[in-house]
Automatic annotation (TrEMBL):
Official protein name in the record: Cytochrome P450
Family named by the database record: Belongs to the cytochrome P450 family.
Single GO MF descriptor: heme binding
Lineage: Eukaryota, Metazoa, Ecdysozoa, Arthropoda, Hexapoda
Keyword list, A-Z: Heme, Iron, Metal-binding, Monooxygenase, Oxidoreductase
Provenance organism: Glossina brevipalpis
Pfam families membership: p450
Names of the cofactor(s): heme
Domain of life from the UniProt record: Eukaryota
Length: 371
């Protein structure tokens, strides 16, 4: 099976296995697609007959890839976005990265037309190749905690579908969102006031690690949604466990790139660096588990009161899935940080160009306190 990161091309490639998306969906043959329950979107016969073979896809050889990620190579110390940018500049809008150390090939495409074909033909149970270390840790390293449930991040096929069917009525319910909005708004207001208090008088600069502050806001918001609990990260007396979790999550995202994206021998040889990564996983799991167990204990003492937080509602359906899902929420709460940071800076850029529309500029200046 080949991983497919949806990318683009001005040429058509007759790949024996159709696209996976950014999180790597299952690659199927043309015949496989016709056999699934979802309707098959027939391709234009001329387009298909003129398609190039899979082996003609451009991309680095395995030896070149290893060479370039080592010290001195152009991919060394590059993050995921830089890595993709460099590959695209070298090989174009569609390219293949050959699998190393037991991994499957990955094909990247930037063409939205390819995305549509994949999503319309992937079948009822998509297969997404995600974080291998995540699945290994939950199912091999800590089975006593997760009991064989990998969660929505790493489960596939019908098992993934069964979990989705259980959590969707709660996670996607409009009523649940509306119930949480007032407190989420309070958290957002506390965040903006915190930033205002850090401004340097006269030049509107903020004296703080902005990324760290957004991490606190993100985790504070998600922890309330998941546990109906405030962590105090935006105040003067934050929860120390929450700070520790934020620190370990930052390490997690750094190390995940090293062991889940870049070539790594960890499936065959667990290096000291990989063992440190497992220790980070342990820290995250233990902290999240302590929060969940604390909330479960509180629920038992409260009796049959109406469920408010996500954890309370999930516990009424499936205790083990509730545990895994809430832990995923707490971990993913900080994963939104890069997007939030880009959103902030894009808004600052908007302020610079919005002189074309003075009313909008005045509103944005007021929102960011820059008037």
């Amino acid at each position: 099976m080949i991983q497919f990161y949806l990318l683009t091309s001005r040429e058509t490639y007759n790949i024996d296995t159709i696209f996976q998306n950014y999180y790597c969906l299952q690659v199927l043959t043309r015949e496989d697609i016709k056999s699934v329950s979802m309707p098959y979107v027939e391709q234009n016969d001329t387009e298909w007959s003129e398609a190039l073979s899979y082996n003609s896809l451009p991309g680095p050889s395995r030896l070149r890839l290893i060479k370039e990620v080592l010290p001195g190579g152009k991919y060394h110390n590059a993050n995921m976005m830089e890595f993709n940018r460099l590959l695209r500049e070298t090989y174009g809008d569609i390219y293949r990265v050959k699998g190393l150390f037991g991994r499957e090939d990955t094909v990247f495409t930037y063409n939205p037309h390819d995305f549509e074909i994949m999503f319309r033909n992937e079948g009822i149970w998509p297969h997404r190749v995600g974080l291998q270390t995540f699945n290994y840790y939950r199912k091999k390293k800590r089975p006593e905690v997760f009991h064989g449930i990998g969660g929505l991040v790493s489960e596939q096929g019908k098992i993934w579908g069964d979990i989705r069917s259980k959590v969707n009525p709660i996670m996607m319910k409009v009523k649940s969102i509306r119930e949480s909005l007032p407190q989420i708004d309070v958290i957002a207001q506390e965040f903006t006031k915190r930033l205002e208090s850090m401004r340097v008088t006269g030049d509107n600069h903020i004296e703080c690690d902005f990324l760290e502050e957004v991490q606190k806001w993100a985790f504070e918001s998600v922890s309330f949604l998941a546990l109906n609990k405030r962590m105090g990260l935006l105040g003067d007396n934050p929860d120390q466990k929450a700070l520790n979790l934020a620190h370990n999550m930052a390490l997690f995202f750094q190390l995940s790139y090293e062991y889940d994206v870049k070539p790594s021998v960890w499936p065959y040889l667990q290096t000291p660096g990989f063992k440190n990564f497992l220790a980070v996983y342990d820290n995250i799991t233990d902290i999240c588990l302590s929060y969940v167990e604390e909330e479960m204990h509180n629920l038992e003492n409260c009796g049959n009161q109406e469920a408010k937080g996500v954890l309370e509602k999930l516990l009424k359906i499936d205790k083990q899935i509730a545990l895994v899902m809430v832990m995923d929420m707490l971990m993913a709460g900080i994963d939104t940080v890069d997007l939030d940071e880009r959103t902030y800076y894009s808004n600052c850029f908007t302020l610079k160009i919005s002189h074309l529309n003075d009313p909008i500029r005045k509103v944005e200046l007021n929102v960011y306190g820059l008037n």
